[in-house]
Amino acid sequence: MERPSIAASAFDRPGVRVRTLATLRWIAISGQFATLIVVGLYLRFPLPWQSLLAAILASALLNVGLTALYGRNARLQGRELLLHLGFDLLQAGLLLFLTGGLSNPFAVLLIVPVTIAATLLPARQMALLGALAMAVLLVQWFWAKELPWAGPPIYFPPVYQVGVAIALALAIGFLAIYLWMVSAEARDRARALVATEAALTRESRMSALGSLAAAAAHELGGPLGTITLVAHHLAESLGDDPDFGDDIRLLESEAARSRSILVRIARRAEAEDPFTQLGLDVLLHEVANAVAPARVPVHIRAPAPQPLVRRSPELLHGLQNLVANAVRHAGSAVELHAASTGA
CATH code at 258? Predict the structure, then answer.
């Protein structure tokens, strides 16, 4: 059974570095603490300080333990990442539960853990976190405490809270699905790019190996010809010798066999590239694609029929330089015109 490659596994479940997750959590902790300072001390709203600070302290302790346990360069994937994002969602839900629930304008922050999960987790685990977010919304709707207020208590009609809950649920669902689809498409493109690069690298190595074989066959042809000539002369002079005749004839036959092998290797290396000759219009499209993405569009005008040309490296290099210079200095577009004189 074929085992998935490390690259394919990374594309399927990219995960996140502990350093990144810890940094995001420290930013959230700082924002939560700053909000408590402004709302509780500056605006003097009555807040359940002990419960709120305990929730923030729990998040800070988890962050310290996360960095100490895994190291900053480790990666979290799958279930571990799901648990950490679930904790962040529950911690944010607890803070909202203590400070007004859906009446609190910071309720929109419940979207953040789910959107992060949509880009980093598989569909099933993202759906689990989305279901947890919906459960948190239901708890906020039915059982959250009143919004802390310095003056008389503010009353929000049930219809308003229902609207906020539905809006948040739709936002969580839409953003999660949208980001998951976009990130999945990006991973598919990256996976295809890696596969293409691997195929091109293999083709380049095989081409280099074929060129090396052709060069070796060419270089060995001279010495082998000398050996064949000497063996032929020895066979004429000592072919009937009872002691060395058989060995000399064997040497002559093996030299001839080696020469035929080198000829086959050279021919095979020359025929390795199936696209040694291309239509001129096809060659121009290959040149245009080689300079992409271009600053301006490149249009090719090549009416049929077009002659076949040899796809040599020097021709490709020269045409690519010409087109690249044209793209660099063109105003709005570059047009390549190809025509055959029929000669």
Answer: 1.10.287
- Which H or E element spans position 342? none
Do 11 and 146 belong to one domain? yes
The residue from 270, 290, 320 where one domain ends is: 270
74 φψ region: left (φ > 0), alpha (ψ -120 to 50), beta (else): beta
Whether 291 and 317 have beta carbons less than 8 Å apart is answered as no
Q: What six digits make up the tokens of 3?
A: 């085992």
pTM over 0.85: no
Structural domain containing residue 118: 6-156
* Tens digits of residue pLDDT in 145-201: 999 998 888 888 989 999 999 999 999 999 999 999 998 888 888 888 887 788 777
What is the rounded CA–CA span in Å between residue 200 and residue 342? 35
CA distances to 37, 106, 123, 156, 229 from 32, rounded to whole Å, are 9, 10, 30, 24, 91
Burial degree of 92 (CB within 10 A; 0-12, 13-18, 19+):
buried
Running DSSP on this structure, what letter comes out for residue 82? Answer: H
